[in-house]
Design brief:
mainly alpha, Receptor-associated Protein, 2 domains, 14 helices, 0% strand, flat, T2SS_GspF_dom, Tight adherence protein C, transmembrane
């Protein structure tokens, strides 16, 4: 407290005014915090508001897995920052779906965490600042801004990294699933039964893709056409390879051609594309190695090769 008071005193230049501003800031912070908590708790304790939140979240009469008060509180905080989009899915929801978060309240939780993380980081930095010796006011402000920026960007970076990792796992597992699907279809199974069998076989080795395929099978059982269910699969995963498969299967079903033949042709084309992609990455290795060689290897080489000669020259000129 004394450290914060001294910082305000440096800016204001008047000790009495600094104490007054410090007391006012502490009082307003406490009032706002208490009022916020009271409003949130009262809203959660109100049976009507709680029921409306559960209905909006997707819970009906069965509430055995109802969310906790903390989760509902975060959803209420994040709800204030979510844009209301009725005709199209927001970019944030698409990002979260690709990362594996399909909950109806995922967007609210995401924005609530992005809002509360900077406040938490600011609180931690304020507690750590008095422990830093000879800290100037400019450096303190810089650390506070840096902490707020890290708190704001950390959830987005985590979700993006999770999305990238999940997309990579799906992309690696897709060729095996495609081969299994070809075998199942050519053995006499229909497309929905083939998808169900592939999801069961890959439940242990590739749980992400198995879960997506099981969801496709559930949608087909609910009455959604196969092509529409596969389109939703492509939207959930964000993989262009699945979009190409959906297009081919839609044409095959429309024109009455063999689904097994279509899957086999696409599997061969997919293997060829993966081989070409691997060759392209291998061809780029030489170019990418130029920068490590220039900035890391060559300075060390010149230091070892020319360093002794330069030292000898300096010794000779030093004797003169």
């Amino acid at each position: 407290m004394d450290y914060l008071l001294s910082l305000i005193n440096r800016v204001v230049g008047n000790e009495a005014l600094a104490r007054l501003l410090f007391s006012a800031a502490i009082g307003l912070s406490v009032v706002f915090a208490v009022a916020t908590l009271v409003l949130l708790v009262m809203g959660l304790q109100d049976p009507v508001q709680r029921r409306l939140l559960l209905i909006k979240r997707g819970h009906g009469a069965v509430t055995r897995e109802a969310p906790s008060n903390l989760q509902l509180m975060l959803e209420q905080v994040g709800q204030r920052f979510v844009a209301q989009e009725q005709d199209q899915v927001s970019a944030t929801r698409t990002l979260l779906i690709h990362a594996g978060y399909r909950s109806p309240a995922a967007v609210q939780m995401y924005w609530a965490l992005r809002l509360l993380s900077p406040l938490l980081m600011l609180g931690l930095v304020v507690l750590v600042l008095p422990l830093i010796p000879k800290l100037s006011l400019l450096l303190g402000i810089f650390l506070l801004v840096l902490a707020a920026g890290i708190g704001w960007l950390a959830p987005a970076i985590y979700v993006s990294a999770r999305r990238q990792a999940r997309t990579t796992r799906l992309l690696v597992a897709f060729p095996d699933a495609l081969d299994l699907m070809v075998v199942c279809v050519e053995s006499g199974l229909a497309l929905p039964q083939a998808i169900e069998r592939v999801s069961e076989e890959m439940a242990v080795s590739q749980p992400d893709l198995a879960l997506e395929l099981a969801l496709v099978n559930s949608e087909i059982r609910a009455g959604i056409p196969s092509t529409e269910a596969l389109k939703r699969l492509a939207d959930r995963t964000g993989l262009e390879d699945i979009r190409g498969l959906v297009s081919l299967l839609a044409q095959s079903i429309r024109f009455g051609t063999s689904v097994g033949t279509t899957l086999r042709i696409y599997a061969e084309e997919f293997r060829d594309r993966r081989t070409q992609l691997a060759e392209e990455k291998a061809a780029k290795v030489g170019t990418k190695l130029i920068f490590p060689l220039i900035f890391c290897l060559w300075p060390s080489f010149f230091l070892v090769a020319i360093g002794p000669a330069i030292i000898g020259v300096f010794k000779v000129f030093g004797k003169l």
